[in-house]
Amino acid sequence: MNILEQLEKIAVIPVIAIEDASDAVPLASALTKGGLACAEITFRTKAGRDAIKNIADNYKDCLVGAGTILTVDQARDAHDAGAKFIVSPGLNLDVLKWCNENNILHIPGCVTPTEMTLAFNNGAKIVKIFPAESIGGLKYIKSVASVFPLKFMPTGGISESNLEEYLTYEKVCACGGTWLAKKDMIANKEWDKIEDNCKRAVNIINKCRKV
Ligand code: 3PG
């Protein structure tokens, strides 16, 4: 199974901002025990890169990727640390081209049809719709997505309360979100709470997808 297929199977991608890289392995364990064996570790914190490396080296059951990647240098750094996929909040064609040249799945952020066209014409297979809820939610996504041969990963404003509606739309490959493991939950080492959040998300996934 390639990385895109793995993400589609997992269906919900925990988006992580982590301050202490030594929390990365217990976090990956909590996510995996909760049924979401995946983490998009953002480069928003200084610990992001080392957190990716800790998971990639020590917790191989968890598919680890990098988020908030704005530059080619960051993409290279994340990949060197072990990131299996690269997510960006917006569309940077240099990052997209670099990832394609290096055979790494890139998920650029897109909002407009023009951005989606550019992403598609430069080899994207999937785009992150960010910030999904603020730009009109599923209603907006449905009105643009039907014309593009792309998969979509809505992120931004997604939680247990609206996850089901997003996942039932067939062009949604997966949803991303921070609600599963918020920064303070990680800092307070609330691993059981994170595991329970994942389990509740998995129940929603199972309701709307055949597994
Ligand atoms: C992201 O980094 O992808 C978004 O900030 C996540 O948005 P959320 O906090 O609303 O889930």
Descriptive notes:
This protein is of the alpha/beta class and 211 residues long. The chain has a single domain, classed as Aldolase class I (TIM Barrel, Alpha-Beta Barrel). Helix content is 45%, strand content 16%. It has 10 helices and 9 strands. Strands 3-2-1-9 form a 4-stranded parallel β-sheet. A 3-stranded parallel β-sheet has the order 6-7-8, with helices on one face. Helix 3 packs parallel to helix 4. The two termini are 15 Å apart. The mean pLDDT is 97. 3-phosphoglyceric acid (3PG) binds next to strand 9.
Instruction: Give the end-to-end Cα distance, rounded to a whole number of Å.
Output: 15 Å
Overall tally of structural domains: 1
> What's the CATH superfamily, by name?
Aldolase class I
- Categorize the overall geometry: globular
Compute the gyration radius: what is it?
16 Å
Cross-sheet strand order for the largest sheet? 3-2-1-9
| Ligand roster | 3-phosphoglyceric acid
Low-confidence runs of at least 5 consecutive residues? none
Q: Major sheet, described briefly? A: 4 strands, parallel
H/I helix tally: 10
CATH class: Alpha Beta
What's the architecture, going by CATH? Alpha-Beta Barrel
